[in-house]
Amino acid sequence: xxxxxxxxxxxxxxxxxxxxxxxxxxxxxxxxxxxxxxxxxxxxxxxxxxxxxxxxxxxxxxxxxxxxxxxxxxxxxxxxxxxxxxxxxxxxxxxxxxxxxxxxxxxxxxxxxxxxxxxxxxxxxxxxx
Length: 129
Description:
Layout: E1 12-15, H1 22-36, E2 41-46, H2 52-62, E3 67-73, H3 76-85, E4 90-94, E5 103-109, E6 115-116, H4 118-128
Parallel strand pairs: 2-3, 2-4
Antiparallel strand pairs: 1-5, 4-5, 5-6
Helix pairs in contact: 1-2, 1-4
């Protein structure tokens, strides 16, 4: 079960691995790969946190069957630029932004890098269960 406290106004984040972990990241990605991201391709990237590669791999695995540009380590502006410039359907950035290093999370965006709130992500996950 995904810890409900990770769903925030602007993203999905929590302390790693207690609240936010590879299992949660994978399940969220699977839900997004369902009806939400139906067409086109997605971009997946991660920041420099020690826990980010683990979550990055889980997101890619959860997006199985979807076309994915694996951006690897990147800044959030680089991630946004690639989505917008390549007309991607959206993407997932593994980052907890300005939070302390023991935190990590997912920034989820749609076309033109339009942000998807954590509360909307929670609804998508619940609808897929």
